[in-house]
């Protein structure tokens, strides 16, 4: 049950084979949800996280989501250590992460994946996927990063419920999606880590839904609400070199439509 006070429930069960066949779904335990602006909700969320956890680390890809989180933590004077997965397939976003750290005087921890240790890294993803009985997806990357920080507590840029536009011309629209891979850290560690920043509080989650301009493509819309410059999303995750693990990875797959829970904007707003 990710987030504070178990407000968001997911239907995954660690180690349950049905995770690979059933439709991913969520339910919501909502009390009195404050109506806040995105910035106010983000500050509120950051404050709660620092009250509940210490030795904070941020999984910092350099993408718009994790950069927004880094900016929120910084403006609230919350100390954290960025941790960067430096892997050639996401080099362009890594550059943004390194640049941000340099400009803010923070020394990141770096997990370097090269062609020499790549198969070992992918093998770790598969080990967790086999243990939890889920597809082997990018949601397991934060778990591998969490292994490297000892008693530190990991925040990710996961948890925003946005459909990703497939082209510049395609608006994100008013159908929102909650992707199961955003919750693999919670499935593995429970509440040991804060996990996804954007789903930690219902205040932030629903503020995003209310305020994002759905007539723009997803990257434009995110850039606008996060106060960041627009840039495309770099994501080659569907062409990862699984090599000797390809057959095993394919055996854990399930259709994309079963891996996301879809909601219309109006229905989500009614919930809140």
Summarize the model shown.
The protein has 272 residues and is an alpha/beta fold.
Question: Describe it for me?
Answer:
The protein is of the alpha/beta class and 272 residues long. It has one domain (4-271): Rossmann fold, CATH 3.40.50. 36% of the residues lie in helices and 14% in strands. It is built from ten helices and nine strands. It has helices at residues 38-52, 64-75, 91-103, 118-132, 141-146, 184-189, 202-211, 218-226, 246-251, 265-271, and strands spanning 8-10, 26-28, 56-59, 81-87, 109-113, 153-156, 175-179, 195-196, 260-264. A five-stranded parallel β-sheet has the order 5-4-3-6-8. Strands 1-2 form a two-stranded antiparallel sheet. The protein has a two-stranded antiparallel sheet with strand order 7-9. β4 (81-87), α3 and β5 (109-113) form a beta-alpha-beta unit. The longest helix is centred in the first third of the chain and has 15 residues, at 38-52. The protein is globular, with a radius of gyration of 18 Å. The model has no long low-confidence stretch (mean pLDDT 94).
